[in-house]
Design goal:
By secondary structure, chain A is α/β, with parallel strands linked by helices. Chain A is built from eleven helices and ten strands. In chain B, strands 1-2 form a two-stranded antiparallel ribbon. The chains are: A alpha/beta, B mainly alpha, C mainly alpha.
Chain lengths: 271, 429, 321
Amino acid sequence: MTTPLLKVTGLRKRFGGLVAVDNVSFSVGERAIVSVIGPNGAGKTTFFNLITGIYEPDEGEVLLSGRSITGLRPDQIAGRGLARTFQNIRLFAGMTVLENVVVARHARLKSGYWGALLQTARYHDEMRQSIARGMELLRFVGLSAKANELAGNLPYGEQRRLEIARALATEPVLLLLDEPSAGMNPQETEVAKRLIQSIRQDFGISVVLIEHDMRLVMSVSDSITVLDYGRKLTEGSPQHVRQHPDVVAAYLGKGVAAGTAATTTAGSALR
Amino acid sequence: MATAKKDRSLLVVSYTAIMVLLKMTVFTGTGLFDTFAFILLFLSLFFATDHSIVQPWARRLVVGGVLFVVMPVIGIGNTFYLDVVTQVAIYAVLALGLNIVVGFAGLLDLGFVAFFAVGAYFWAIVGSTQGNEIFGGGFPLPADMFFLATIVSIGLAALAGVLLGLPVLRLRGDYLAMVTLGFGEVIRVLANNLDKPVNITNGPQGITSIGQPLTEVAAALASPAVAEFKWQALIYYGLVLLALGGALVVNKRLDASKIGRAWIAIREDEIAAQAMGIPLVHTKLIAFATGASFAGAMGALYAAKQTFVSPESFDFNQSIGILAMIVFGGLGSIRGAITGAALVTILNLQVLKALSTGLNNLRSSGYEILGFNFADIPSQFEPSKYERLIFGVILVAMMLYRPRGLVPAERGTLVADEAELGTGKENAR
Amino acid sequence: MTYSDILMLLPVTLADGLVLGLVYATIALGYSMVYGVLGLINFAHSEIFMVGAIVSVEVMTYAFVGSDLHPIIQIAVAMVCAATVSGTLAVAAERIAYRPLRIRKAPFLAPLITAIGISLFLQDAVRFIESLFGQFIRPFPSIPFFDQQIPLTANDTISYKSVTILVIAGTMLLTLNYLVQHTKLGKAIRAVALDRKAASLMGVNVDRIIMITFLIGGILAGVAGVLYALQFGRVDPFTGFIPGLKAFTAAVLGGIGSIPGAMLGGVILGILEVLIGTYAPIFTNNVIGTEYKDIFAFGILIIILIFKPTGLLGRSTTEKV
């Protein structure tokens, strides 16, 4: 058996009296697309924050490619190849679109302070490469024409795509997307879906997404993990999750029959 | 577009030429109109450095001509103007240093002058007999050691920045503001009291007879036409321009590099910056130390130029004044920092002083109006004593009504290949 | 100097420290409460305190010199005046420096800079006004009543002045604690401090609560100004800076945002400062003079920030992401 790309064991986080994430184990294989779903307040975003080092877990361990990243700082974790986007977009609004992407290459550039001051050849090479790479990524998400605009001036859907390009610029092995389709109309969601699929195809990396849109989740995921009240309710293939009675109950409350139709509307009901 | 820019370039060049002529022929003195003419002449530098209106050839011509030809000529005629410009340039370098800390990295440093004091006291101690009080003998160091000492001052100030920043930079930004505020005060108390047990700073009396660099050059150049002190003033002018040039290069290069982008990213959103692989404390420390090092270098130069330092030169007003400069000019804006430094310095040095002198003249005149004798105006009312009020108004008014300053910072140091954008050349700026 | 001499100084030192500490605590509460609701340090707070001190000196000088009114009533009137002016000023500072920027969602540097601007403006504005009437360094009129002594131990006494300060500051602190812990207003303040958005959804008028918090902080600063002027006998437009910095240190020491913390921090800092001020020169033969007590307070600030940034009673908070 090969080591999974990401392996989380017994993760737990408590805020005061509330256990936000309770003994969650989770793993992601190579070139996989995994979704984490659950009702609002189920601890999904906290789970991401624990993995990416924004919060320090009270218990549990996170391994990336077999090496522990528990307790590392977010920037160190990003350096190890774990990138993310944020639920409520956190772009650098005052920087241009291109700069947003290039800044994320920070950890990948060897030439730093003195390189810049002395304008070494390596510094210039890296700059050129960074800009070229940044433009490639912008083309990938369809924003290359807006490279010199301020990120804060982009419309909402484009900001979400820029966040993805920025995360990809860190050269991750695993990308965590926190509600990539939130606030999008069906057409935009369709674009987001194709984007997620091509991330796996073109970059050969794995994607974990938190998502409320069930249509999207069901169509892109290899596997789905369901969180409720900080605990893992179940995990498995879309087929398995769709039919799991606890999942339907968690989403729609008691008294709703399990069924394909019901679960696919669950997402829109939540939003 | 191109022709309009060419026209405007010509316009700026002609404006400069007219001002130079006026200043050199009609308004040669130091009276009110002369000063005004001088300020108008100086304004040509502001126009010429606006990339959006002036072509590079005009910029080089105006900046080079005014700074390297016109200024020295005016200065030799009248060192007063040279002193003003030297003063402006010193503050411009300080403002560029603080701009890295506050403008780029978004770290509010209210005790910036402390690092200036570190540099100033270092050269003051080793460049005068004060060093003997600490080390027993061998001081003052030869004045030519000044340049080496400046490098050490840069290092010391950067070190002080790191030591102060290390405990605080991992905390929220307003703690940093409060701690730097306190640190400025600590440095002042230390400067005042470190005359015992070992006399390091000579206490409130300060340190006098500090060595000046390149005096032998000034002496050798002295002639009946141009006295030694004028050459010395020119030498300082040259040194300060050199420092300003260095500061500009460092600012621009860092701004365009990954460090500069990381600073902006941290300023905009710390959490996102960190999640994108930017180490917060490390990157902030670099900003803090770089800003401090600018102040350290200028401190050494200031000590040499004044040949005297005392704790009074490093009070809170100075720190706030430099902050007001960059807020005035535009946080994060390199051209803004220099503009702000020039405006605030000229305001302090010339406008307020002129008003104070006017008030004093009025007072000594002893005129009476409606039974009020002007001689009774308390000296407390001299406008030059109300720096804080002016700085306060600048800070509040700018933040409320023009938060990006007079010369807002422009992003776009990174420019994508034009072909890829499918847009014209003017897109670059 | 023998050990018994050193011990002899102790009761008086501790009493002085407590008095100073309660003054710090009263100022510190303003920092702490505003920080609690806004998450920002109010840099103008030290000048609001200074204005209170100046107002009290002016009231005592112009209204009461030669008056037969009981000195306690005189002080009470001065307190009401100082609290009114300082409270109004604090609300004005909030309106000018904080609210417009909060509404505009300006970057977090902006309100700090405006608050510093207001603080500088106040220093020079007060200096200007004071200069109109002569000297801007203002002595607190001497009132013999407050110099009377009550026996403290066999050898030591404590002045009426100190007792007055202890009683007034103590009452203010207890009242505030009651207000915040046991009234509806207090509950609203705590709700805003905990989660501004949620509080607003629950029907709390957040802007009003923020304004009231500034008002309370300003009133406390005004009262602290009176006490400070009474204790130290003279004030000037730059009086606010050092006590402000120390009160901030006290707030951080106790745990910023925590009301009991601000009180505890103030008392600890006050006592430590007086102890150092008294004993450091004795033990070091004046090498470390009294001037160093300011540096010492700053040292404490740095040490807390390194080792326990949440302070003694503060709770760590996690930023929402």
